[in-house]
């Protein structure tokens, strides 16, 4: 939605609040108009069309039906958001029954407002179905007044529709507030268990067009006599997977319709969570080597440091870089240099344990966090990689001989107890390795040079270090 100029009307008596909302929405690329509620009847043209209307119901005496009539919203697919001060849930339900699509509590944060607008404009299908249900509720109420013989039946339908509307609203709040797929499925199960006595729920997502792996998660325990019902999950006209539930009784046609709406809500929530996880994964990776980048490395080091402080576990850090890498770029070009970095990144992923955190620090410099490891133990892993670099024949089109200089430090050498000091010590050890002639390893301990001894390469390149 951020790439489209959406036309939005803000109806707010408080000029400073209206201007704050307008400034934020304009910064997001929207076209915004502001109207004072008192002049709404005189200045608005019912032929004007807006994609969204933000109406501060506490700023004037207009009701939602009156606002919809003045703006002729019944004939338009306009997304109506009410702004109010700490309403009760019954007021929220009443507002949606009267024709509102969302309700936000003042003061409204820009992030929350943008999120509601995005989801509202993207999920018109859900909103239209909810509004159809609300219309059915109103129609049922009118029929109750006309025909007393059907009063009890229509009242029950009204209560059921209201209950469903309340349930959909609560479910939407619960699952749209999370970007964790497992948490979303858990919330769905809790709500369905209370509303429809569901004993078990499972969501399955097939592999995505961007290469995402298939995923599934189940909650609850099905009974042998339960009936299992499967619903399709899809968003934007594209199938995503399925949602399966187990119930103690056969579902009715009305409940099946409700499940279809629930499945659409769940699909959109899982799609948002999947996209968020993919964006986060890409943001934590170096685009060239596919190793972790410096930003994610620093976050991980902070987490590992907290574990070290709490449990006094050993923690080591390796800094290393390629010797004379600039000469490769100068002699063979940056494309060859990039290919060397890519293949070195692959070697590093093979050379360290799963629990080690391997990252590209910048340029031709790399860093590795080794939890529960002393610098003497980290020396074994560094030596294996150093020897592997010398032995590896790179697929670069040139006869290149690679070597690396390594600096290692651990938390036992700390004086101030900060992660910045650990980084500085590993960096100083790396400097000593380069100063002493390169293609070697230095431990941070009075800069005593380690005479590299061959380490047997039999078996896996990176077995677990024996403590």
In short:
The protein is α/β, with parallel strands linked by helices and 467 residues long. It is 47% helix and 19% strand.
What do you see in this structure?
The chain has 467 residues and is α/β, with parallel strands linked by helices. It folds into 3 domains: 7-122, Rossmann fold, CATH 3.40.50; 136-283, 2-Layer Sandwich (Beta-Lactamase), CATH 3.30.450.40; 294-450, Alpha-Beta Plaits (2-Layer Sandwich), CATH 3.30.70.270. It has 14 helices and 15 strands. The protein has helices at 15-27, 40-43, 64-70, 89-98, 110-122, 124-146, 151-176, 181-196, 253-283, 294-311, 325-332, 334-351, 375-391, 419-435, and strands spanning 7-11, 31-35, 52-56, 79-84, 102-105, 200-205, 215-220, 227-235, 238-247, 315-322, 357-362, 365-371, 404-410, 441-443, 449-450. Strand 4 (79-84), helix 4 (89-98) and strand 5 (102-105) form a beta-alpha-beta unit. The longest helix is centred in the middle third of the chain and has 31 residues, at 253-283.
Q: Estimate nothing, just give the exact number of structural domains.
A: 3
Tell me the CATH architecture of the largest domain.
2-Layer Sandwich
Q: What's the CATH class label of the largest domain?
A: Alpha Beta
The amount of beta strand, in percent, is 15-25%
What would you give as the CATH superfamily of the largest domain? Reverse transcriptase/Diguanylate cyclase domain
Major sheet size, sense and barrel closure:
6 strands, mixed
Radius of gyration: 31 Å
**Strand segment tally:** 15
Helix run count? 14
Q: Helix fraction?
A: 40-55%
- Round the mean pLDDT to the nearest integer and report it: 83
Task: Indicate the overall shape.
Answer: elongated
Give the spatial strand order of the biggest sheet: 11-12-10-13-14-15
Give the CA-CA distance, first to last residue. Answer: 54 Å
Helix-strand topology string: EHEHEHEHEHHHHEEEEHHEHHEEHEHEE
What is CATH's topology name of the largest domain?
A: Alpha-Beta Plaits
The computed structural class is alpha/beta
Q: What are the segments in which pLDDT stays under 50 over at least 5 consecutive residues?
A: 447-467
């Amino acid at each position: 939605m951020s790439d489209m100029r959406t036309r939005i009307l803000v109806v707010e008596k408080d000029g400073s609040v209206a201007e704050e909302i307008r400034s934020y929405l304009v910064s997001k690329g929207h076209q915004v108009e502001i109207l004072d509620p008192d002049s709404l009847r005189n200045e608005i043209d019912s032929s004007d069309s807006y994609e969204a209307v933000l109406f501060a119901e506490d700023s004037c005496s207009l009701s939602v039906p009156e606002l919809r009539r003045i703006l002729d919203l019944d004939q338009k697919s306009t997304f109506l958001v009410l702004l109010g001060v700490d309403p009760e849930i019954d007021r929220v339900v009443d507002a949606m029954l009267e024709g509102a699509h969302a309700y936000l509590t003042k003061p409204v944060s820009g992030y929350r407002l943008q999120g509601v607008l995005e989801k509202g404009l993207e999920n018109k299908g859900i909103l239209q179905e909810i509004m159809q249900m609300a219309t059915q509720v109103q129609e049922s109420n009118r029929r109750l007044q006309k025909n007393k013989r059907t009063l009890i039946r229509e009242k029950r339908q009204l209560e059921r529709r209201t209950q469903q509307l309340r349930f959909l609203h609560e479910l939407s709040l619960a699952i749209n507030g999370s970007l964790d797929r497992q948490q979303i499925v858990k919330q769905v199960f809790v709500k369905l268990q209370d509303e429809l006595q569901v004993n078990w729920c499972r969501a399955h997502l097939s592999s995505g067009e961007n290469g995402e792996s298939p995923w599934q998660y189940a909650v609850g325990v099905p009974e042998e006599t339960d009936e299992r019902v499967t619903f399709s999950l899809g968003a934007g006209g594209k199938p995503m997977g399925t949602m399966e539930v187990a119930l103690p009784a056969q579902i009715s046609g009305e409940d099946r319709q409700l499940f279809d709406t629930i499945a659409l809500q769940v699909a959109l929530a899982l799609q948002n969570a999947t996209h968020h996880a993919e964006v986060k994964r890409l943001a934590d990776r170096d685009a060239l080597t596919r190793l972790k980048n410096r930003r994610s490395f620093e976050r991980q080091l902070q987490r590992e440091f907290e574990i070290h402080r709490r449990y006094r576990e050993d923690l080591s850090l390796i800094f290393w870089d390629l010797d004379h890498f600039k000469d490769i770029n100068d002699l063979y070009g940056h494309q060859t240099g990039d290919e060397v970095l890519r293949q070195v990144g692959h070697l590093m992923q093979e050379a360290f344990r799963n629990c080690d955190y391997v990252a590209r620090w910048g340029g031709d410099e790399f860093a590795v966090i080794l939890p529960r490891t002393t610098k003497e133990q980290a020396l074994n892993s560094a030596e294996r990689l150093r020897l592997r670099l010398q032995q590896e024949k790179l697929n670069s089109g040139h006869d290149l001989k690679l070597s690396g200089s390594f600096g290692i430090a651990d938390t036992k050498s700390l004086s101030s107890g900060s992660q910045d000091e650990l980084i500085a010590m590993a960096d100083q050890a790396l400097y000593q390795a380069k100063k002493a002639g390169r293609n070697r390893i230095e431990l941070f301990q009075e800069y005593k040079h380690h005479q590299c001894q061959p380490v047997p390469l039999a078996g896996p390149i990176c077995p677990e270090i024996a403590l």
